[in-house]
Amino acid sequence: MTAPFVKESLRKIGQSSSLVERACLQLDLACYYSRAGEFTQARCIKDAIRLTFGKGENISVTIRLLCLDAHLLMFQDESPECRDRMARANLLSKASGDRVMVAFTAAWLAMMDLNSSDFVRMRECAIAAFESMGEETTPAECRIAIVLAMANQLAENSSESVAWYERGRNLSVKLGDQAAIGALIFNQAAFRLLHCRMDAMRDRSSDLKVEALRVDVQSAISYQEVSGISSLGHWLNVIRIGSLVVQEQFVEAERELLALLDAATLRVGTSNFYTVHSDRTVILVKTGRISEALLSVPLIEERLAEQGCADDKAQLADSLLLVAQADGNFDRAEHWRLFRNDQLREFEALKSNLRNELSIFSGDRVLGFGS
Questions:
Q1: Are 132 and 333 in contact (CB under 8 A)?
Q2: Strand partners, 369
Q3: How far is CA 204 from CA 200, 201, 283, 365, in A?
Q4: Phi/psi at 369 (5° precision)
Q5: Does residue 297 contact residue 278 with C-beta atoms inside 8 Å?
Q6: What is the pLDDT of residues 109-163, one digit of tens each?
Q7: How far is Cα 127 from Cα 125, in angstroms, rounded to an integer?
Q8: CA 290 to CA 326: how far, in whole Å?
Q9: Which residues, listed in sequence order, are joined to residue 366 by a DSSP beta bridge?
Q10: What is the mean pLDDT of residues 356-371?
Q11: Which secondary structure element, helix H or strand E, spans residue 137, and what is its range?
C-alpha cells in the first residue's frame, strides 16, 4: 500500500521545475522512507542529492540532509548519534530563519530526548517547536503530538495521553503519514508493556491491563501487515515476546524469541538486545531449565553495571532475582531484590519529574497549538 504522503510527494517532485525545491521534496520523502523502514530507497535519494549538493551549496538542502542522516541513525542504526545530526540541523534552521525546519527539528529533538529520559531538554525542545509553528498543519505538529502522547503515557497521565494520541492520529491521517500512525500504535503497545512489567514486579498485575496489552500488540502487528511499514519490525517482535512473557505464555514466547535471534536483526549492545536476553532468562527459569538460565547471568550483570534507564534496569534485575531464587542462591536473590526495588523507586521519581515537566502542556490547547 503506497502511503498518501508518498503519492503527494512524488506528485510535487514531478511538477517542480526548481532543482533546490525538488531536492528538498526528495529529502523529505527520504526521511519518510527511513521511518517506514525503506532504508535502501532513503539512502539512494541521499546519495543522489549529495552528488549535486554535497558541499553545502544550499542551506535548505543541507538541513534536510542532516535530518535524513539523523533518521537513518535513529531507525536503521539505533545510534544515539542521531541527536547530534538533528541538533546541527536545528542550529542551521535557526541561522537561516527557516521556521518550518526549526519546528520540525525541535520536535524530533524532543522525541530523542524523551527516549533518553532527558525530560527537561524534551520540554524545552517541545516549547521551541510550538513557538515556531504556523497555522498550516505540518509534520512538526504531528510529531510533537506523538511525543506528548508517549510522554503522558509514560507518566501515567491517562486522559492527557489519550487526548494527544487522538490528536496525533488525526494529524497523521491529515498528512497521509502511515509511518506516523504506525509509530502511534506501536508506542501505545510499548508503553503498555512497560507499565505491565512494572506492575508485575510490585505484585499489582491486572488482568484488564494485560488483556489491553494483548490487544494493543495485536493492533500494532496488524497495522504493520496492512501498511507495509517495516521500520519497527524487530522492535515489534521484542514487545510481542515481552507481552507473551507477561501473559505467561512461555512456550510461544520462546518460539518467537528464538526466531528473532535466528534472524540476527538485533544489534548487540542495544536495549532491545538485553531485553530479549532477559526475557529468555525468565522463560528458561519458568520452564525449569535453571542451568541454561544461569548462562545468561554474566551478560545481564554486565549491562546492569552500565548507565541505563531505571525501568530497563528493574526488568533486568528482576530476571536475575528469579534465577538466583530458582538456583537456591538466596543471598544473591536478596541483592537483586534490593537492587530492583531501588530501580522501581527511581522509576516512580522519574515519572514524578516527567509529570512536572509536562504540566505546561496540560489541556487540549497548548501555546496556541490546536483549534
A1: no
A2: 366
A3: 6, 8, 20, 34
A4: -85, 135
A5: no
A6: 999 999 999 999 999 999 999 999 987 778 999 999 999 999 999 999 999 999 9
A7: 5
A8: 7
A9: 369
A10: 67
A11: none
